[in-house]
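Comment thread on ticket #2218

A.B. wrote:
> Attaching the input chain for the structure job we discussed in standup.
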Amino acid sequence: MQTLHASADPAVLIQRVGALVEAGRCAAAGPLLAAARQLTGQSPELDLLAARIAEGQGQIDLARVQYDVAVDAAPDHAELRKQRSAFSHRVGDFDRAARDAAEAVTLNPDDPDAKALLGSALLSLGRVSDARICLAEASAAVPANPAMREALAVATEADGDPDAAFAILRAGLSRTGGALSLRNAAILFCIRHRQFAAGIALAEDGRMAGTVDACLFGLKGHAQTSLGQHEAAAESYAEALKLGPDDPYVRHLVAASGLLPSAKRAPPDYLRTVFDGYAARFDEHLIGLQYRIPGAIRRVLLQYIDAGNPNGPILDLGCGTGLVGVAVADLRIGSITGVDVSARMLAEAAAKGLYAALHEADVLDWLAEDHRAWNLILAGDMACYFGALDPLLTAVRQRLSPDGWFVFSVEAADGDSWSLQRQGRYGHAKTYLIDALRAAGLTVRTIQDQVIRLEAGAPVPGYLIVAQPAHPVH
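C.D. wrote:
> Ran it. Output below, let me know if you need it in another format.
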């Protein structure tokens, strides 16, 4: 056990506390912080360290109090403003993050870090043009900083200028010596914009330079799969697995390539990664693929109305950007609540103004925690991210009102079970669907052959299912 003497140098002690916090050893830093307070009394520096220790230990409310104490004691301390801004952004308080960052810029107009914080906060608030200006100034001041350049590219694309966004990423690769995070952002950009060959070329450049990680190989494999290069994709996924054996995004794509036994569902972290990056152009892309599920669900709900069923409430599982909401909003059959794992997809849905409430959560977790009964539960193109449907169907059964309808779509598969396809989605056989619904206490009202969308110009076959409780829930 370390013994502290009155002659200990406070500066050295504070430096040691800071080093422990940076190393993530917040529990060890706490006693040393208390000793430093005994030697020096209160100071903004110690208040800031106390806040960082509380945050590092998951004590968010205490951390918020400690950041406030630090700033209140020294309101003109630019570094404290920046630290509280960053904290507020991490916990989702974007208004406060923007206010503190703006104050830091006022206190020190030449600080690029403060401008970058302000730009990131404004971007999260949807003020993309203002964010772009701030991030451009920050990046111009520190042109070799990859994080600032990546944030500028995000703001630029959100501001409606994707070509300029990609140019920013490419120029950054030249300036930063091929920073890995920037290269991965550029590859992901190519995938989102269906420039698969360009994404593969960027990944190959990184491989030749020796600047690679699991994410780069995973993205390369994704691009190769999209071009039908399945053998090459399998090799890329194998490399990804070596570098990131525990990464859920990598493992799911590797499983899809056939190198691993199929998991029973796509991991939530995988879905969040994919759809956060896909949100800005999701609607445009699916419309271009002649996506048919929202229209098919609308036709089912017209039958629901004609049968004299009661109005909602309606639950839209995996609501994404709200395309199903768009298709059914004018039917006036009740308020719609949406659930999705992707914050950026939900932001797109919120902008449409059609949902009474939107929740960011994994659908199974949310169904387990919300105990309301729903007259209609919809799941357009969401069940394709589950292989074994038992947990999902059981959870839905528990939340359906006795006469409620569950309307959902799946992609079709041969055989009599389910299988993970190369694009990371699952297909289901009709016999499996019927058996799984029955086991979950649901009965099939209708099961229709349904083209989901086009892929590489060919129709993707699937099913649209309407199910009801087989007997009341007790």
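A.B. wrote:
> Thanks. Noting for the ticket: The beta strands are 314-317, 336-340, 357-360, 374-379, 400-412, 418-420, 426-428, 442-455, 458-469.
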